[in-house]
Fold:
Amino acid sequence: MTWFTLPVDNLLCRCLGISITVWFTLLFVFIIVPAVLGVSFGMRRLYMRTLLKIFEWAMLRMEMGAKEKNQELYKPYSNGIIAKEPPSSLQQEIQELRGSACLRSEPEFEMADIFYFCRRGVESIVDDEVTKRFSAQELESWNLLTRSNYNFRHISLRLTVLWGLGILIRYGVLLPLRVTLAVTGIGLLLVLTSLVGFLPNRELRSYLSEKVHLMCYRICVRALTAIITYHNRENKPQNGGICVANHTTPIDVIILANDGYYSMVGQVHGGLMGMIQRAMVKSSPHIWFERSEVKDRHLVAKRLGDHVADKTKQPILIFPEGTCINNTSVMMFKKGSFEIDCTVYPVAIKYDPLFGDAFWNSSKFGMVNYLLRMMSSWAIVCSVWYLPPMNKEEGEDAVQFANRVKAAIAAQGGLVDLIWDGGLKRGKVKDAFKEEQQKLYSKVLVEGVSVQTWTILHIVTLNSKHANQCTD
Structure:
């Protein structure tokens, strides 16, 4: 019996050894070497086009199956629950509520004014434009992923088989490949940046550090099967500046660092993230803050200012929103990075949710769970636009400058420009927002009195002139 099983064991070992050798050879030739050289064979683009054709076929099958069974194919999809009228000023709406009220010489509150604030409050509760920015973006059609499914896979047998085949491909082929690539990229980043950090020559260390970072980030991009289209590369961030971008996911860093060399800014972490931070800072001037230093605005501004003052250092990469938004809008930019006297390079990032939702809902998924979802998606497809550099204008403060940059990013990426703070994801509305509404209402009362007083004086003056003409 022992004599019979030995050849079988040897055969299994040989097959396993050959499979591992072929696996790592293909990995090295088709992924790691192109990442080192910064080239692409176009396989990811071909993969994306193939997926689009499969999704189109699946949509036709779903439409046919839905008609045969008289089922609702789509989950109701809309940008808002309430059909809102075009925005108008507070003063106009208050005047419409009051109607043809008599003119008064003193400011006075009217009961009708309450209905304006009640209506706005109910609209905000029913169709909250802030809270829905922290949930996954809805799809108009199914992408054969259970996480975005509305019972579409049960419409036909062929569609069910295709869905099952997709699970086997994503978890049996793509996920192991992507995990291998991710481990390779992170491992190389840890080892090579540590080794480069020991070089005494600053210029050589900086040159090799840039090449190592680009290579490792390109491998990590391939670990996500990320298909990225970069626009207007002539506007790429330059040394001595700050690159600011809208924030959807932690992999925004990898998406941008795949095409440029940046200094990262962040808080010191422990564990694996802390190891990566310590290795990176040995070869490149990244800026890490201790937990106790993060709230010290003057210290943060000084370290950022010292960095951009040195034109030999790479641009700083910052996400001013401070939290992840679901890629449908851009929320308030923190003013800290706009108080520094330097050129700001805006970047707009827009993901295509059809192939996989990149948004990280940190209140629902941990980092490991989130990365598993990313690596088990079909792909990460996005577009990146480098906008023309912007500088603070004369008489413009940091808040106005931040809003101007935010508006430019929103317009280019096709995102909704919101004034709300992303901190509302976990916090309460600041008193400043409530006070602002109170000030606007007070201003309406005061201006209303001024207009009414001017109108009365104007009428009296005209009557006096008319009386004098009659007397003459």
Summary: The two ends are 136 Å apart (CA to CA).
